[in-house]
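Researcher: I'd like a candidate sequence for this fold, 380 residues long. If you have to choose between options at a position, lean toward the conservative one.
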């Protein structure tokens, strides 16, 4: 009783010390195992931040384009010329300024999901392999939001405007704007003004000749009215749609210097793109069918991008109040998601005679566009 070991500690302390050592070793092993588990699952979780149960479609990985750009010779400007400055011309400039301000403050995407944010350090940043290049007020925001549901698509929410406004900042700056992607995922962005920017085709081709291009087109008359409606919401004091449409109301001469009219000359803009990209690398999405049958159009887009058809009818429902389809579940959310309040604005009443003259004006351009793309969009 009370006998001590040579070390001065009781015999009863030895088992307790061994137990503590074993517990410490077990805790260390548990920490290592937990670290390895989180590291190994980071890729699979980041691949589908919003739809973890959908799985990932297989697709061959894209090699990242080189961070060099060929010198960009500035091609001649469009042949459309603005009329001399008049009170009406001043009104057009105000309308153009308001539209420019709207473009400079693009509608941003939803906040990333907690899982996406947690694994934001996974993967690497790549230059985009696919770009939605146009057109303004055609449905580009809807298409991008729908595509982001796919686990193999990673896209920038805001419009980078690199190839039209910030090209001097360089491709390294542009790539840094992109989200991180894993092997097999596609990096995308959308900037609708690229389609009507003369320098954009050569600049994108210099980045990568293999870039896939998506153009969302819409009846040019409806598109012009929608464009005007957007500008009017920012500048209620601009001239009427009719005043801006005609250079001479008496003769019915259409003013092609107004951007709302000029954007709808799809055939003229497409000519510049076909100098740098083959038609097979371009997909033309119908803005009208994107509303009537979003799953059908998304099926074509997924095929074009080489993705598994994951986005289907089950992802959409039609919102009668807004008049366009919405997602049942957005990326990183379990709640339904419709586009913002800036989408689906009520158009002002336009005189039927003005609409008729615009349709007559656009008809030959539409027919040529149908011939160039091999697709009749039915705008006549």
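Model: Candidate sequence:
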């Amino acid at each position: 009783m009370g006998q001590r070991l040579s070390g001065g500690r009781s015999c009863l302390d030895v088992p307790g010390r061994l137990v503590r050592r074993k517990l410490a070793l077990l805790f260390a092993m548990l920490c290592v195992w937990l670290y390895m588990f989180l590291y190994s699952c980071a890729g699979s979780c980041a691949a589908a931040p919003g739809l973890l149960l959908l799985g990932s479609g297989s697709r061959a990985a894209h090699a990242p384009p080189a961070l060099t750009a060929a010198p960009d010779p500035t091609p001649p400007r469009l042949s459309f010329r603005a009329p001399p400055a008049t009170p009406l011309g001043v009104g057009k400039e105000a309308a153009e300024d308001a539209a420019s301000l709207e473009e400079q403050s693009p509608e941003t995407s939803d906040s990333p999901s907690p899982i996406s944010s947690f694994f934001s350090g996974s993967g690497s940043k790549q230059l985009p392999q696919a770009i939605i290049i146009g057109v303004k007020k055609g449905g580009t925001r809807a298409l991008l939001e729908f595509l982001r549901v796919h686990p193999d698509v990673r896209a920038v929410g805001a419009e980078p405007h690199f190839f039209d406004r910030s090209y001097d900042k360089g491709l390294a700056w542009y790539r840094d704007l992109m989200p991180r992607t894993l092997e097999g995922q596609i990096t995308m962005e959308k900037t609708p003004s690229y389609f009507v920017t003369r320098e954009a085709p050569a600049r994108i081709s210099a980045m990568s000749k293999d870039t896939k291009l998506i153009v969302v087109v819409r009846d040019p008359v409806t598109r012009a009215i929608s464009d005007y409606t957007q500008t009017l919401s920012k500048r209620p004091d601009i001239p009427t749609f009719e005043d801006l449409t005609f250079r001479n109301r008496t003769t019915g001469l259409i003013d092609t210097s107004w951007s709302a009219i000029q954007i709808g000359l799809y055939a003229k803009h497409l000519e510049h793109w076909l100098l740098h990209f083959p038609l097979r690398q371009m997909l033309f999405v119908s803005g009208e069918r994107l509303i009537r049958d979003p799953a059908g159009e998304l099926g074509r887009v997924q095929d074009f991008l080489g993705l598994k058809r994951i986005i289907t009818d089950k992802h959409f429902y039609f919102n009668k109040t807004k008049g366009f389809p919405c997602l049942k579940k957005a990326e990183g959310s379990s709640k339904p998601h419709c586009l913002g309040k800036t989408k689906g604005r009520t158009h002002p009443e336009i005189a039927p005679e003005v609409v008729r003259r615009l349709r007559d004006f656009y008809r030959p351009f539409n027919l040529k566009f149908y011939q160039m793309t091999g697709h009749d969009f039915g705008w006549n």
